[in-house]
Amino acid sequence: MNKIYIDAYKCVHCGACTSICKNNALTIDKNKYTLSFNEGKCVGCERCIDACPLRAIAIRVELRWLCV
Ligand code: SF4
Ligand code: SF4
Questions:
Q1: 25-34, pLDDT tens digit by residue?
Q2: Fold topology of 2-61
Q3: Domain ranges of the chain
Q4: If you take atom 4 of ligand 2, which residue's CA is the nearest one?
Q5: Which of 16, 38, 48, 68 is the most buried (most CB within 10 A)?
């Protein structure tokens, strides 16, 4: 499972990350000035990180081990 971390102090709600995310994992509400992340839709491609002009996004990839 991947987790995106958004620095709310840096984010200016420009929408660059939501536009580039093909999985609709990021959604922006320009009226409320909020950026939401849906963990279940994120595939960890990191395109949003490169797209953010303010470097407001970081990702942590969590590894899960399966025991058999
Ligand atoms: S890492 Fe990829 S899938 Fe996840 S939110 Fe960013 S652009 Fe979307
Ligand atoms: S690209 Fe960066 S500044 Fe723009 S909405 Fe996304 S996190 Fe905020």
A1: 999 987 888 9
A2: Alpha-Beta Plaits (3.30.70)
A3: 2-61
A4: 14
A5: 48
The pairs formed by 17-24 with CB atoms below 8 angstroms and a separation of 24 or more are 17/48, 17/51, 17/52, 17/57, 19/51, 20/47, 20/48, 20/51, 21/47, 21/48, 22/47
Q: Decide if pLDDT at 68 tops 60.
A: no
Six-digit token string for 66: 């399966």
What does the pLDDT read at residue 55?
96
Higher pLDDT, 31 or 65: 31
Which atom of ligand 1 sits closest to the CA of residue 37? 5
pLDDT of residue 48: 96
User: Using CA positions, which residue lies closest to atom 6 of ligand 2?
Assistant: 17
pTM for the predicted model, two decimal places: 0.85
